[in-house]
Amino acid sequence: ISMSNWKNFLKADGTPSSKLVVEGANLFIEPAARQALFTNAGVLIVKDSSANKCGVICSSYEIIASMLLEKGEFKKIKTELVADVLKKLRGFARMEAELLFKDFTNYPGALPTFSERISRAINDLKDAIVHDLKNMKRDEYIKYLPVFREHLPKKLLEVAGHEILNKVPEAYLKAAIASSIASQFVYKEGPTYISTLPRERLGAIAFRYNEIQAEISSLIEKIQKSDLSEQAKNEVVSLLRHGGARTRLEASFNQEAQK
Fold it and tell me: Do 203 and 131 touch, CB atoms closer than 8 A?
């Protein structure tokens, strides 16, 4: 669909033949045509970079599985592994969709604009993290391995998680860690917040955020085991999950400024 034919998508009365388009193919609709359909007919378009993100993730699972498993090992767990992959992909698709439509609701603009912002934020963070990881030795970057392990399908981790450091090339592992940390940060806090952070410190801030997330998880476990009432536990846990990491991060910024 291009600027030469986008009006063909409309019915005789000028209303769209579909109010929602999910781009299953890359670059099927030209950017200008996307905007024209939204501006003139209110068509909501889920851009290819959002709609097909799980395809990219699935490919990464294929690569990591080929690194960690022999052919026979893969065949033995194929059914369970595929089920775990699908569960992971549904979770990632849900996070992308929720963030996409949340920002679309809260800020002006068409859906493709927010898809681009999400992708840009993740890529900028990933590049900054990879840059900072580049010169780290194994005993330095290994502390960030849990966020990558959390990203993997349950069955793959169960069968071959102990082989990650032995079989996955260091450069690939660092890139995977960076992608995992970046995605976690963006899906939790949103691209608008990421855009306010100083670019020269993006990597360091992402590492700190990841460490704070681990601290919050540990604190939540303690609260859930405490003597507080169930209602109080739920309220405190909800506050920590929705704003605890960002609040703690902002507090660390203030502490640095006062030094």
Answer: yes
How far is residue 4 CA from its own chain's centroid? Answer: 35
Gap between the Cα atoms of 113 and 115, Å rounded: 5
- Other Cβ atoms less than 10 A from the Cβ of 94: the count is 11
In whole angstroms, give the CA distance from residue 236 to residue 255: 24
Low-confidence ranges of the chain (pLDDT < 50): none
Distances in Å between the Cα of 66 and the Cα atoms of 52, 147, 150, 156, 171 are 22, 20, 18, 11, 16
- pLDDT the model gives residue 7: 96
Q: How many Cβ atoms from other residues are within 10 Å of residue 180's Cβ?
A: 22
Nearest to 45 by CA among 60, 25, 65, 63: 25
First to last CA, the chain: 56
Placement of tokens 């900054």 in the chain: 128
130 neighbors 144 (Cβ within 8 angstroms): no
Please name which of 67, 254, 93, 106 lies closest in space to residue 190, comparing C-alpha atoms.
106
What per-residue confidence (pLDDT) applies to 45?
Answer: 95
Look at residue 211 in the predicted model and tell me its pLDDT.
92
Residue 122 to residue 114: CA distance in whole angstroms: 12
The secondary structure element, H or E, covering residue 216 is helix 202-224
Tokens of 141: 């970057």
Total length of the chain = 259
138: three-class secondary structure by DSSP: helix
**Helices (H), ranges, 52-110:** 53-68, 71-106
Q: Which two tokens stand for residue 55?
A: 């395809």
Helix pair 111-133, 202-224: axis angle to 10 deg = 100
Q: What tokens does 207 get?
A: 């590492």
β partners of residue 44: 20
Contact (Cβ atoms closer than 8 angstroms) between residue 215 and residue 249:
no
